[in-house]
Amino acid sequence: MRRKLVTDGLQARIQAEITRLDLGHIPFVVKDSSGSGQSLFSVGLQGVGKVANREVLSEGEQRALALACFLAEIGDESANYGLIVDDPVSSLDHVRLRRVAERLVEEAAKGRQVVVFTHNLVFFNEMVSEAARCGEKAPLVKVVIRKTETEGFGLVTEDTEPWLARPVTGRISDLRERAKAAKAHTDLESDAYRRLAKDFYSDLRETWERAVEEVVINKTVERLVPDVMTMRLKRVVLSDADYQTIFFAMKRASERSGHDMPAGRPISIPRPEDMSVDVEALDAFRLDYVKRAKEAEKRREALEDPPKAELV
Question: What is the rounded distance in angstroms from the CA atom of residue 33 to the CA atom of residue 51?
């Protein structure tokens, strides 16, 4: 009765999850037993002799197998109770990482509340992308938990992204607010304000760098992404004036961020007003460039079609 009601269905679900997580090439066998009124099962390697999984499987394969068993076990549950998953993709390669994201979002689309904790930005982006693909079936809330020097650990911010994953527009908004908050400092010669200004310009420099990737070359080439999106070149309009703007903005930010100041040529610590001016200069460049890029896109789309012949 146990095998008929529990084991057969569970074994089929485990095998399906193993295939979904790209473990189908490994010969697994599901074993079951019962004791004290409990049904127990294990998944091991099928071979001539008995070999422990850890002696053959990589750490990533062991993690994927554990996830497959977990997902199979909850697959027969009728109650849509919530799931909390803590960093599920440790040691997984990108293929399995994406498949785990797909499976967790699939569970959310069934009506479950799925809470995922992760330090992995690639996995974070995969979850966001998959949730967007599912649309209204899997509504998403992004939450960042971080620490600050003044407030310590556990600072929770909803509907946002980590700095490294934040787009240029989001970074500009953050920098704009930080420039406003800097006006509360009265002693602009203090070490605390100097560190604040240094951190601000370090992030401003990073935002200019991200703007080159995201806005100027329109993600034609992205770091750590193997593909080159040649079709995105239709919105690349880099001019000499653009180069000049980027060069001097980066130079200004670099002088005020991560470089040791020469004693013989000290540069004054920027005021909050300077921060605001520099942030608005970046945003003005972005808006002007995007406008010109859209105009170029329309012109270049016309170049993709053959010229229209005229009947005489």
Answer: 19
* Farthest CA pair distance, the chain: 93
pTM over 0.85: no
**Per-residue model confidence as pLDDT tens digits over 36-84:** 666 667 787 776 567 777 778 888 888 888 888 888 888 766 667 889 9
d(CA 201, CA 210): 14
Nearest by Cα to 91 from 117, 123, 56: 123
> CB within 8 A of 239, min separation 6: which ones?
none
| Residues ≥6 apart with Cβ < 8 Å to 126 | 97, 98, 101
Beta-carbon contacts of 292 under 8 Å, excluding residues fewer than 6 positions away, are: 237
Phi, psi (5° rounding) for residue 40?
-115, 150
Map 43-62 to HEC letters. Answer: EEECCCCCCCHHHCCCHHHH
Residues 175 and 203 sit within 8 Å (Cβ to Cβ): yes
**Torsion of Cα atoms, 65 then 66 then 68 then 71, to 10°:** 180
For residue 283, count CB atoms less than 10 angstroms from its CB and return exposed for 0-12, middle for 13-18, buried for 19 or more. Answer: middle
Contact 160, 142 (CB under 8 A): yes
